[in-house]
Design goal:
The chain is of the alpha/beta class. It has 5 helices and 4 strands; from the N terminus they run βαβαβαβαα. Bound molecules: ligand DLZ. InterPro entries: LS, LS/RS, LS/RS_sf.
Length: 219
Amino acid sequence: PREFRDCNKMDPTIKGLAQSDVQYDGSSLRIAIVYARWNNTVIDALVAGAVAKLKERGVKESNIVIETVPGSFELPLACSRMIAGSHVQASSTVPDLLGGLSFSGSLSPPKAPSRTGTPAPGAALNLPKQPFDAVIAIGVLIKGATMHFEYICDSVSQALMKIQLDTGVPVIFGVLTALTEDQALERAGLGRGASKGHNHGEDWGLAAVEMGSHVRRWA
Ligand code: DLZ
């Protein structure tokens, strides 16, 4: 049973993610990260934060697949294709004869190897990869002088939500929608002021492990 926290011992601030009572175990999970390359100083810190927390929760390095796209607008398509590709791959009964080549570099589902082909002696017969348990979409949008920001924020957030509801695979919303550069830096733990802020990428890594674990239980 969940214990309620003693209100008198709570932090003075009411904002932010409360620590979970449960330490979710990521050791059997497979997680994808897709990141956009706009504003890459901030992006790099966010991706590093997410990866650090995935590993801390036991996700194996070989089960973390990282992809990149030009900008945040491209994130939904990448997430959608990666989820679809990983399910195709996982449901295939044909062993991967390609010596461990992953399709993640191309965002295209792998071509099924020939069923009649005989693997070279000693060739590794890798089992099909398991589907992704969660995908983390990471982007940094910083408001400019035009309406571009509003359109991208709106369409990307709606599309990412739709993908997770349509596929049942959690899509972690790792898109910063910042009004200023300083806001973005602070949310990546790179603040230029007295406080460096907090790296939200870490929260996204934890959220991926938590949601991936929940979805398996809820299946
Ligand atoms: C064009 C654009 C602009 C102005 N700003 C950002 C941004 O702050 N963050 C981001 O991730 N992407 C930006 N982009 C690029 C678009 O997301 C997209 O890559 C292009 O419009 C091509 O579809």
